[in-house]
């Protein structure tokens, strides 16, 4: 081999040896003048799979359930009172249901 294809110690250098990251010649002459690339950046880790527990932890689901329960109870308790008030019926006026109707 010609001198341009030789290691500094006289061994014939195979083209695959040049800048492959290994000291194939034994004197590191096959790695001289190589541009060493920086470490390749690691790909970002995928986000962990999220389940409904993320919603529970954030408070949205419990908060909405509490509000819904509160509104439901309020409707059950207040709706009959509002209807009676709109009709003009006083509480306790049904205690004389067995009396005959006045003509």
From TrEMBL:
Classification via Gene3D superfamilies: Low-density Lipoprotein Receptor
Originating organism: Plakobranchus ocellatus
Xref: CDD domains: LDLa (cd00112)
Alphabetical list of InterPro entries matching this protein: LDL_receptor-like_sf (IPR036055), LDLR_class-A_CS (IPR023415), LDrepeatLR_classA_rpt (IPR002172)
SMART domains named in the record: LDLa
Keyword terms of this UniProt record: Disulfide bond, Membrane, Transmembrane, Transmembrane helix
Disulphide connectivity of cysteines: 7-25, 19-34
Name of the featured protein: Complement component c9
Membrane-crossing segments per the record: 59-78
């Amino acid at each position: 081999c010609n001198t341009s294809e030789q290691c500094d110690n006289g061994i014939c250098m195979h083209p695959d040896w040049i800048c492959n990251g290994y000291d194939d010649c034994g004197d590191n002459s096959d790695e001289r003048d190589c541009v060493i690339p920086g470490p390749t950046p690691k790909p970002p880790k995928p986000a962990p799979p999220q389940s409904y527990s993320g919603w529970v932890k954030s408070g949205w689901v419990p908060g909405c359930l509490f509000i819904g329960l509160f509104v439901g109870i309020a409707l059950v308790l207040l709706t009959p009172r509002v209807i009676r008030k709109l009709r003009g019926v006083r509480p306790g006026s049904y205690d004389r249901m067995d009396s005959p109707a006045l003509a």
